[in-house]
Amino acid sequence: MLPVSGFSLSLIKRFAHSLVQCLKLLHRENIIHCDLKPENVLLKQRGSSSIRIIDFGSSCYVHQRVYTYIQSRFYRSPEVILGLPYGLSIDMWSLGCILAELYTGYPLFPGENEVEQLACIMEVLALPPHHLLIAASRRRLFFDSKGNPRCVTNSKGKKRRPGSRDVASVLKCSDALFVHFISRCLEWDPSTRMTPEEALQHDWVLSSHASTISSSPPSGSERRAGVVNGGPAGHPRRHGPITQDSTEDENNYTLYKVYKGKRHRDTNTSVAESGAKQDTTTNANTTTTTTTSTALATTTTTSNTGVNGNLETTSTDNSLDDSGTFLPPIL
Prior knowledge:
Strand content: under 5%
GO cellular component, one term: nucleus
InterPro entries: Kinase-like_dom_sf, Prot_kinase_dom, Ser/Thr_kinase_AS, Ser_Thr_dual-spec_kinase
GO molecular function, one term: protein serine/threonine kinase activity
CATH topology: Transferase(Phosphotransferase), domain 1
Largest sheet: 3 strands, antiparallel
Number of helices: 13
Region (Disordered): 210-331
Number of domains: 1
Organism: Chionoecetes opilio (Atlantic snow crab)
Order of helices and strands: HEEEEHHHHHHHHHEEEHHH
Helix content: 25-40%
Number of strands: 7
Radius of gyration: 20 Å
């Protein structure tokens, strides 16, 4: 399997700043999105890093929680998995998973089911605090009577040992601030997890906000994805369908489509280079733009419009538990 490369860190920073601004507004109104994932983040237009968050179909107010089965599996918070009361902090967990995935090109916690999902989390974050397990209504699904994690082997014969990895080793990133930001989003205890307000004051976000103009050209993988100015430029050539039921829509270009399309092009480019001529890609100078508060206000106010407008379906299965269509085969 060919390696998959993620987006550049500077582009991820711009996405992160916009996402955190939106979460801040949602938190101020006591609204939980409940299903943050790359498929639910739209680029406002080609060639721009301004985004919209969509699909508020699972959303609720903090004091009016209806569902217990929420969030797509790869982005599902431990309190939801364990059957603990959940709140605004579950969206911050999803944010950390999304940003890590955009950087590496792979899911951070790629569980094949809920049992392995928690095993994936424990592999990186070690065992959950005792006080969380005591209050968890679903703990017996994941732990034996002595509090030991149930042994699970996935379809590829892989077993995951708690605490055998850490966030830094998974990300393989030299930016310590980015690693710390992700780690703060992925706190076991929701009460200590970073809030949107704290995220906006984090050194990694502040440094990205201060340097919104980048003079470096886009990476090769981003050029193949058509990513210029933090978004997909023009009409990048497609070598095949993105998903079985996806359609081209000029106004609704999701991170899912950029990412999936980039992987399609990366794979086909490598094949073409080994045996045939290949079309050359024009390098574009990158001039990134800052997503302002006004744009973020538009992000939030247009989200419901997107949902009511019946945006494209990017998954071959409407089940919340099926988030695997966005990602490459699990290692």
